[in-house]
Amino acid sequence: MTKELPTTGDQRRSQLLRGVLDLCLLSLIAERPRYGFEFAEALAAGGLELVSDGSIYPLLARMERAGLISSYRAPSPSGGAPRKYYRLTGAGHAALGRGRADWQAFAGPVGRILTTTTPSTGENTA
Amino acid sequence: MTKELPTTGDQRRSQLLRGVLDLCLLSLIAERPRYGFEFAEALAAGGLELVSDGSIYPLLARMERAGLISSYRAPSPSGGAPRKYYRLTGAGHAALGRGRADWQAFAGPVGRILTTTTPSTGENTA
DNA sequence: CGGACTACCTTGCGCCACAAGACAATGGGC
DNA sequence: GCCCATTGTCTTGTGGCGCAAGGTAGTCCG
Questions:
Q1: Lowest CB count within 10 Å: A83, B15, B67, B125, which one?
Q2: Residues A17, B9, B115, A44: what is their CA dihedral angle, to the nearest 10 degrees?
Q3: Domain ranges of chain A
Q4: pLDDT per residue as tens digits for the range B30-82
Q5: Which residue has the higher pLDDT, B5 or A104?
Q6: B39 sits in which H/E element
């Protein structure tokens, strides 16, 4: 009725993605030029099943506007609408490097905090 | 003018915190009862310098309302206003366990994606 | 021509970290 | 007794962003 806390991890993942989804796209683009539809696939292949295109396209647009990536169109080999490929700019490379450092500076401490307390031997009740 | 992209990692960390800050608090509480002011300290000690109380108190209130934690008041030994200590409930323990799993299921793939591409000399295990 | 498929983009919504500041309780200085 | 510094809690307004759902456009096939 009023309000339910998330019972599944789905809601959590949405929040977790926040600050790191752009880096994932950047990193994926760094490998080779990519187009929009590809990202959801690549992320799922990497272990992150999710991320509707409604999250990805606006983000790509923002990053392009910010000068981190640039785009060019190419016809789809499988028929259909032409694809819009994205490529990293110099600024994008720099941002990716910074972002990776940020992520590690964040994930390390978090992991440590989360495993600090009696995680094992399930011996607690309190 | 219109809009600037974040130049520092500070903005990013704010976003990264979403989805994991509650788990950190839960984990910290699991160690022993804690009060509000303590959390920012403990997080900073753990490597996460930040997190103003404006983020923490509302989150604690939300979690208490959700039945994950319970509180009791105790006078401050150092003079001043009484402290409000929080303790884990059974549901809180369960949520913490689930959350830890969620975090690992997320951080793993993300780390892998971010290190997939030629980070520098690019000679690692893939 | 019409349907199906590929691909891109937009709108409205809700969540939540944050900055800034108000409020409450205690103890010490005078 | 009164005032204020200290300790600590809580509230309000703001903004960014992931998401669901829906809409548009280009290409191919029957």
A1: B125
A2: 10
A3: 15-101
A4: 999 999 999 999 999 988 887 889 999 999 999 999 999 999 999 888 878 89
A5: A104
A6: helix B36-46
B110, B115, B120: which to substitute to probe chain A, counting the most A Cβ within 10 Å? B110
| CA–CA dist B72, B83 (Å, integer) | 8
**pLDDT, average across residues A11-15:** 89
Interface contact B114-A12, CB threshold 8 A:
no
Nearest Cα residue to B43 out of A108, A110, A74: A110
- CATH assignment, B14-114: 1.10.10.10
Could you tell me which CATH number the domain at A15-101 has? 1.10.10.10
Across the interface, which of B14, B48, B116 has its CB nearest the CB of A27?
Answer: B116
Report residue B31 as tokens.
């160690």
Is A25 within 8 Å of A96 (Cβ atoms)? no
Chain B 33-52, residues with CB within 8 Å of chain A CB atoms? 43, 46-48
